[in-house]
Amino acid sequence: MRRLNQYFSSIILFILILNMQLLHAQAKRKDIGKLVFERTCFDVVHYDIQVKLSPNEKFISGSNRIEFKMLENASKIQLDYTKNMNLDSARFMGKPIAFKRKGNILLFDFPAGLLKNSSYTLLLYFSGKPLEAKLAPWDGGFVWRKDRNGYDWVGLACEGLGASAWLPCKDHWSDEAEGADITLIVPKDLTGVSNGKLIDEKIVDSAYKAFHWRVVNPINNYNISINVGRYVNFKDTFSGINLLPLSYYVLDYNLASAEKHFLQVHGMLEAFEHYFGQYPFKDDSYKLVETPYWGMEHQSCIAYGNNYKNNSFGFDFIIIHESGHEWYANSITASDAADMWIHESFTTYAEALYLEYKSNRTTSTEYLLGQKKKIVSKHPMQGPRGVFYHGRTDSDIYYKGTWMLNTMRSVLNNDSLWFACLKEMNLKYFHKIVGTEEIIQYFNSKTAYNWNLFFKQYLYGKNIPELEIKQLLLDNGNIRYTLTLESDVKDLKLPLNIKLPNGQTITVVVSDKSVVLELDKRFDLYAFIEANYLLRIERE
Hints:
Number of helices: 12
Shape: globular
Helix content: 25-40%
Structural class: alpha+beta
Number of strands: 28
CATH architecture of the largest domain: Sandwich
CATH topology of the largest domain: Immunoglobulin-like
Radius of gyration: 25 Å
CATH class of the largest domain: Mainly Beta
């Protein structure tokens, strides 16, 4: 079974890399990556979105009422909307306002000026055929499908493309709306599901119904979700740090499978609240929604499309991983796509912690070792800012990232402090936007250990350090090891905290200067390092 799982894991890895290449090919939208003054001079407060979906035509139309606050005096602001979509009209203070389009950019001119600390509202009407995803969620766009009974089944995933692929908005990770109202107008025999809580459901006309959803917490644009299908809804409750309502929308013929399969949500939430603190969006609820693609971390409305299957470790990867993003990506949000490792590395590491909580560290390590084989080290995990960066063609922000964190835990050699760091990190940056430098500084301060060179090697560099190990069998039966670290970063020192079978721990600091260590020959030094540190090992 494990061999079969490894086979499928290899297929998944191939798909991940292929689709990251597809995403890179499509995401050449550097014009919406730059933080020019016309974007930084204002802050989005609220979106009020109405979208009517016509599945037969693969067409959408609607409006977005944007409430924003000026951070500086200005006469122009920039919004974003992909050029294949139509911005039909715009109104400001009840009157039409002209705009200029430059590629994917919309520029609005306010001759009277906009005043610092003042709030304004801009109403935008849009329509068109949005980009259709070929292989969601990686290449991005709308997914227009039919379920097995012939009903329309629609999903949206736009992390790589940006929400401006379908919605006129300020499309940058550094600015989240403080809340949103989302109304989906869908064919009357279907249900429209979005983020937050359902406020109202009503008949629009003989052909359409409207579903009004409300989000009361900050939300990043790509998480704004559209799901349409022949759904049935069932509910549950999780008694954790807070009493949390759980809501599930699944295709009608999958109800029995979902009711059984989604029970694992309780164990997942229990584990993640144990390690990371309270579920971050209790006021918006927790939802899983069945989608015609694999999955996505849409805030409080997680896309699920894994066909009710567990892996060989006994859990559904999509439920565990995408739910982990509620803490890392949705609550703690990177300020730029270049810092996306913050989302994926911590969330992938959360999978291993889930197993450690559910079972033990041995099982967690076995899971991590399977992921370690997928590390490519072709690009630095940290990308360049200000260019809408999606240039990674490997999955290292997942697997190298989780191993970077696992190595940090081993270097620190203090689990109480390590887990306190993770929990307090979620408290410190609860519903906040952060950059890589803030995260590094946080760990420096919290652990009283300087991680700067460590991150320079593992995060900003593409290569994994190499540990050269020479061994000599001594007359007393022990083995003398000579350890030398080769790295791209000058003066990098890496403490190896080696836990011996007798319970003793010895610490050896490896660097470019050789260090000698004597151990009982029955102790497998290679296996220990392999299980706890991200190092390439050269044996002699």
